[in-house]
Amino acid sequence: MRSDPARIGDAVAAIDTPALVIDLDAFERNLQRMADFARERGMRLRPHAKMHKCAAVALRQIALGAVGVCVQKTGEAEAMAAGGVRDVYVSNQVVAPHKLARLARLARDVKLAIAVDSIVGVERLAQAVREAGSTVDVFIEVDVGQGRCGVAPAQAGALARQVVAHAGLRFAGLQAYHGSAQHFRGVSEREAAIRHAVDVVVAARAAITGSGIACPLVTGAGSGSFRFEATSGVYGELQPGSYAFGDADYARNEADPHAPRFEQALFVKAQVMSASLGHVVVDAGHKSHAIESGLPTLWQREDLLCSGANDEHAVVKPRAAGAPLPALGDTLWLVPGHCDPTVNLHDHLVGVRGGLEAGRVESVWRVDARGAVD
Predict the structure, then answer these.
(1) pLDDT digits (tens, 9 = 90+) for 189-213
(2) C-alpha distances in angstroms, 104 versus 124, 127, 230?
């Protein structure tokens, strides 16, 4: 039986390791800054819950003005709904009939939307909602430069006609998210990528309206580019996710002076479990933090670097040969390379108020959609 990594009221020092910890003060400032940004620009905010997978986090975002959340998976949609989220958008393609049946049933209880990029997807979704007696909003995804899912602009009109031909499907607009652009390091690179995305969206929207169908909304944007979508005059809804927690990869981006500044709020608490000449080892390896975007960095320890990791271990070395190292039993705070898959490795998010040194545990939230990859 696994126990919770902490209890409410515990001092930070009492949190077991490895544990996923949120600095609640930084986290709440991040939420407020994005909410203010969207409100001041008249934009709808629909944060991406695939990052945090936690209904408690989603409800805090909604309390600050978000219209609902995005998810990528059927299981994530079900977990958010079970946690009290009443407006869920699956911003991804689902074509398996049994999964579409689950979503169609869910749509009887919550406002549900889904993205499509094929006639097959539309037809199978239409059958599912017909059998469930529900109604679903449908966004057509266009490929705005990612080279992943989505149709070409010229195909959008024909696909929109397929959507409106079914009584249980409401055409809601365009899904236009450029995932790769979020991690282009330079501000000018990200801006150029979104300019291209806007051109694609304008062409797709023209194909739809040229078919006599209104295009109510364009939705997209992420934590690295949202400022450009917000000022495009084309997008009406923003879908950032990582802004709430942050990670080492986003920290490598050039800061946009015209966008809000977000703070690192997500950490893996680790303990030095072994000490050798020239390095120490902490008890948080691949099973505690994702590394596809790089090894973790050490929070407020510029003198140290993570030089390697295995399943249960991470090796930490000094940047300067011969420099002092942490002692056996010391705490080190790791900033994961990529927040989304890191969260999916943990059962709980431990919320700390008052800082990582002197703070206390205020909340222990379940990662409701952990492992929901279906």
Answers:
(1) 999 999 999 999 999 999 999 999 9
(2) 11, 9, 31
Tokens of 158: 């024909």
Question: Measured between alpha carbons, how far is 109 from 81 in angstroms, rounded to an integer?
Answer: 8
Q: Residue 144 in contact with residue 200, Cβ under 8 Å?
A: yes
Residues 6+ apart with CB under 8 A from 311: 285, 286, 287
CA distances from 355 to 11, 65, 231, 266 (A): 10, 26, 35, 12
Contact 53, 342 (CB under 8 A): no
Classify domain 25-245 at the CATH superfamily level: Alanine racemase (3.20.20.10)
The yes-or-no verdict on residue 1 having pLDDT over 60 is no
Specify the CATH architecture of the domain 12-19+262-366.
Beta Barrel (2.40)
Q: Which residues of 109-120 are buried (b: 16+ CB within 10 A; e: fewer)?
A: ebbbbbbbbbee
Rounded to 5 degrees, φ, ψ at 27 are -55, -50
